[in-house]
């Protein structure tokens, strides 16, 4: 299933081989655009065979279904857990994940058909739990307006987790949807340290810009929580850094803040470790010890961070995140189990 025939040039396109089992029998169209915002990025346009993905049955996540209009993400977060998914397509989980973006061009129409099925029961749909649905590609392909409209037409509850300020483009649609369905929005802001942001999340809007989006959403009547993720050990977890971040979250008007300590799954772990060796080599051994038993930091450390953030949230007048309307994208501490073999749908790789 290797994708060949990738090309250069402004607006060039060419069919390339692709995974028919996932994306149908038609050709995958590969495009590049010689514009500053898309330079170095290759888009693989596909027609998906299904869009609603079932969350693994053993998961404790507060939703059962997700929608992901993209694979790969130009946000280029070095810690992104979803990097492993690119290997399923024989695409590189490092730079390839950042620059080889799969675009499900038929996503809005396909979702509309799936929601109209007699088998669909109107369950909550979560978006942004794999890769960001408001990444840079969305500015060109504009898949989210049609997706939100399809959900609104069925009064289907949904939530969005994003680092992308492009969500503000769709604010009128979100307001309309919130009139007929339960809509939850969360923005991910793990820290406000601009130096750390520039190296670890180079393709994202700045933390300040994301918090400004939280304020805009809240002022427009769309309650917005903040997923304080990831809290990065030894780089973004000092008491001063945690206090600065929670204070900024409170000032942005967020209805909740919930911390999530960095986790390093296969795929992300290798890429993050390489980044760490280049930018903070003195921390490589400390990370090896902290994450020696698996993908997660020790439970005592996670609880310590959670306690500190909750105490700061209380001090600044905001409550910890729970299962409220604007927090539906939040997830449990441990990884999900195996998928339900009887689900009959693709399964969603969980955020944790």
Output the keywords.
five-stranded mixed beta sheet; alpha/beta; 352 residues; disordered N terminus; single chain; 12 helices; disordered C terminus; eight-stranded mixed beta sheet
Widest beta sheet: strand line-up: 4-5-8-9-10-11-12-13
Number of strands: 13
Task: Please provide the ordered H/E string of secondary-structure elements.
Answer: EHEEEEEHEHEHHEHEHHEHEHHHE
Based on CA atoms alone, the radius of gyration comes out at 20 Å
Task: Describe the protein's architecture and organization.
- The protein has 352 residues and is an alpha/beta fold.
- The protein contains twelve helices and 13 strands.
- Strands 4-5-8-9-10-11-12-13 form an eight-stranded mixed β-sheet.
- Strand 9, helix 6 and strand 10 form a beta-alpha-beta unit.
- Helix 5 packs parallel to helix 6.
- The longest helix is centred in the last third of the chain and has 18 residues.
- It is globular, with a radius of gyration of 20 Å.
A few lines on this structure:
The chain is of the alpha/beta class.
Topology:
Blueprint: E1 12-16, H1 20-23, E2 28-32, E3 42-46, E4 52-54, E5 65-67, E6 70-71, H2 95-99, E7 100-104, H3 107-115, E8 125-127, H4 138-141, H5 144-153, E9 158-162, H6 171-178, E10 183-188, H7 194-200, H8 207-219, E11 224-231, H9 239-251, E12 256-261, H10 268-279, H11 284-290, H12 299-316, E13 319-320
Parallel strand pairs: 3-7, 5-8, 8-9, 9-10, 10-11, 11-12, 12-13
Antiparallel strand pairs: 1-2, 2-3, 4-5, 6-7
Helix pairs in contact: 3-5, 5-6, 9-12
């Amino acid at each position: 299933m290797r994708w060949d025939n990738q090309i250069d040039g402004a607006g060039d396109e060419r069919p390339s081989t692709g995974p028919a089992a996932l994306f149908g029998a038609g050709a995958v169209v590969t495009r590049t655009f010689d514009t500053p915002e898309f330079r170095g990025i290759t888009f693989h346009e596909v027609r998906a065979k299904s869009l609603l993905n079932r969350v693994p049955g053993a998961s404790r996540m507060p939703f059962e279904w997700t929608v992901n209009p993209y694979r790969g993400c130009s946000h280029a977060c070095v810690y992104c857990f979803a990097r492993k998914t690119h290997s399923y397509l024989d695409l590189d989980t490092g730079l390839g994940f950042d620059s080889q973006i799969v675009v499900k061009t038929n996503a809005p129409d396909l979702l509309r058909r799936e929601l109209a099925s007699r088998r669909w029961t109107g369950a909550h749909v979560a978006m942004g739990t794999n890769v960001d649905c408001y990444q840079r590609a969305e500015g060109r392909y504009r898949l989210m307006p049609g997706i939100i409209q399809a959900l609104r037409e069925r009064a289907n509850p949904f939530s969005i987790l994003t680092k992308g300020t492009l969500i503000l483009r769709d604010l009128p649609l979100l307001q309309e949807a919130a009139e007929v369905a339960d809509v939850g929005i969360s923005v991910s802001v793990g820290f406000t340290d601009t130096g750390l942001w520039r190296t670890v999340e180079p393709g994202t809007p700045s933390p300040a810009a994301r918090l400004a989006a939280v304020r805009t959403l809240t002022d427009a009547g769309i309650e917005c929580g903040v997923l304080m993720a990831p809290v990065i050990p030894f780089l973004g977890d000092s008491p001063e850094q945690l206090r600065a971040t929670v204070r900024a979250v409170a000032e942005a008007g967020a209805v909740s803040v919930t911390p999530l300590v960095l986790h390093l799954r296969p795929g992300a772990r290798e890429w993050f470790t390489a980044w760490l060796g280049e930018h903070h080599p003195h921390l490589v051994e400390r990370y090896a010890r902290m994450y020696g038993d698996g993908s997660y930091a020790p439970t005592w450390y996670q609880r310590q961070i959670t306690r500190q953030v909750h105490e700061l949230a209380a001090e600044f007048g905001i409550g910890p995140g729970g299962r409220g309307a604007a927090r539906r994208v939040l997830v449990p501490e441990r990884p999900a189990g195996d998928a339900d073999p009887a689900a009959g749908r693709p399964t969603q790789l969980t955020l944790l």
